[in-house]
Amino acid sequence: MNLRVLLAVTAIAAVICGCLIILNVKTGKKASYAALELQRSAKAMADLKGKIHKTQLENNSANQKVEELEQKVSGLVKQRNADRLLIEALWNMLLRNTRSKERQGPGEQNTVKQNQEEGSRYGKEKQSVKYDIGTVREIIESGGSIENAVRQIVTSDTLSATLQEHNDEPSYWVAAASLEPNNQTSLTYLEEAASLYPESVVALSSLVEARITRGQTGESTLACIDKIRTLDPTNALADCYAAYCQFANGDVKGALKSLSQAGTKDRFADDRIELLMARYDYFLNAGVSDAVAIGLSAFDLPLSHMSMLRDMGRYSIEQASALSAAGQYEDALQLVKDVSNVGSSLSSSGRFIVYDRVGMVLQKSAFEEQKRIYEAIGNVRQAQEIGLQLQAIEERSAAIDVMVKAFGGVQQSMTEQDIADYVNGTMLNGEFSTLQNIPEIAKALAQARKEKNSQLPQISPPSKIDADPYLP
Fold first, then answer.
1. Which of 245, 180, 234, 176 is nearest to 209 (CA)?
2. How would you class 342 by CB atoms within 10 Å of its CB: exposed for 0-12, middle for 13-18, buried for 19 or more?
3. pLDDT digits (tens, 9 = 90+) for 302-324
4. Contacts (Cβ under 8 Å, ≥6 apart) of 77
């Protein structure tokens, strides 16, 4: 009996011990799992802290870049406002001087003649008017173009007399070249100007453009470009000249380097305002009325470097496509960004709408290639962002097309005062803003917007059931 009790107790004790062992094992495992989970949580927490710290650093860096960009933009705005005020002051001074001559009597004109002998630039007796708006229109209609009218109005005698009076001013040599019908004589004017005034950017730039137009892209032209770079190092134009010539000469590596330098500069100056003012004097001396002289000087202003910039952009995009095809995506992206930067600087620099159009051509081609590259490497977000920029460029380009088309009809009925106001507005505010303020063009823009909106798909608001059939 006692033995049976002892055995039973022993068995019970064994079972209890076994249970305790199993319980300890399970508890140990749970503790082990808990410790492991704790380690994982600690590691996850450390990783999260690291990511938060990295994000904070990136955010601080981004904020710093934003501040730097804001300061840069603020500086550019101040510089542009200063430039605008300077141009406005110079332009108003010119107009006041010219209009005061129209009100002068004979005695006052004698005083002006004396001032001319003392070296006053605009203090001279005004030539009798032989060409007003009606006369010039008749010449254009019979000759077929403004260029032919200019050739008929500004004779070789007018060129010689005006240049002799202002032969110490490089811009007048350049103006004479732009009005001279004979190509070789025109080039001679520019070579003489560059020789007489080797530190004149307007003389050197005009000579470079003339040589490029004639296919002369060799060492002498590149030497002139280097002079311009030295004289005006913050101007992107000389780098664009160099890139074009180097592409033409087969020096692709040099061309891409020049383009890269142009892409880092946000200033694009070509001295066309100075040239416009000098040409204006030639027209006055030819007997053209004041307002028509301003109009002819502006409407026939030579802008041959615009086609050069288009070609430079096209050559660059071809190189970017080749780099992309070879898998060199980073180099290709940098190249198209340089083209885009040059286009942006060009669009914002000129007062005439042609600058905006050519600048947008460069930007559009760059954005299209950039979008293709991002799509090729699978960067959907960047491709979408570039797509939005492309859309903005296309919308602005379409608006300019509407304005240019409408201006053709407006131009036919412009009075002399209309022409004067138009050129004056262009000099002060830019041609884009001036065109928008012409009633006929504003109406054409409004009509274009209305037609565009009417072509958009009409989407009816969804009914409650269509929106969510589970709503009561």
1. 245
2. buried
3. 888 899 999 999 999 999 999 99
4. none
DSSP track, 384-404:
HHHHHHHHHHHHHHHHHHHHH
Q: Which of 183, 161, 359, 179 is nearest to 275 (CA)?
A: 179
In a domain, 168, yes or no: no
In this structure, is residue 100 part of a structural domain?
no
Return the amino acid letter for 432.
F
Using CA atoms, how far residue 383 sits from 256, 329, 341, 389, in Å, is 24, 14, 18, 10
| CA gap 421, 95 in Å, rounded | 11
- Percent helix, strand and coil across the chain, each rounded to 5? 80, 0, 20
| Residues contacting 10, CB < 8 A, separation 6+ | none
- Tokens at 449, concatenated: 């917007």
Identify the burial level of 371 via C-beta atoms within 10 angstroms of its C-beta, where 0-12 means exposed, 13-18 middle and 19 or more buried.
buried
**Residues composing the chain:** 472
What pLDDT is stored for residue 458 in this prediction? 57
Residue 125, token pair as written in the block: 């007796």
- What's the token pair of residue 359? 């600048």
| Residue-range definition of the domain harbouring residue 357 | 303-452
Residue 439, in any domain of the structure: yes
Q: Is 60 helix (H, G, I), strand (E, B) or coil?
A: helix
> What is the C-alpha separation between 207 and 171, in angstroms, rounded?
12
Distance CA 34, CA 28 (A): 10
pLDDT of residue 99: 42
Quote the tokens at residue 5. Answer: 């009790």
Residue 421 lies in a domain: yes
In angstroms, what CA-CA distances link 176 with 162, 199, 413? Answer: 9, 19, 30
Which CATH number fits the domain that encloses residue 329?
1.25.40
**How many CB atoms lie under 10 A from the CB of residue 390?**
17
- State residue 143's pLDDT score: 72
Distance of alpha carbon 176 from alpha carbon 182, whole angstroms: 11
The count of structural domains within the chain is 1
Q: Which residues of the chain have pLDDT under 70?
A: 1-51, 53-127, 456-472
Distances (CA, A) of 388 to 256, 330, 364, 372, 384: 27, 21, 11, 14, 6
Residue 130: which of 288, 285, 282 has the closest Cα?
288
d(CA 309, CA 242): 11
What is the pLDDT, as a whole number, of residue 36?
A: 59
List of residues 6+ apart from 216 with CB closer than 8 A: none
* Secondary structure of residue 266 in the 3-state scheme: coil
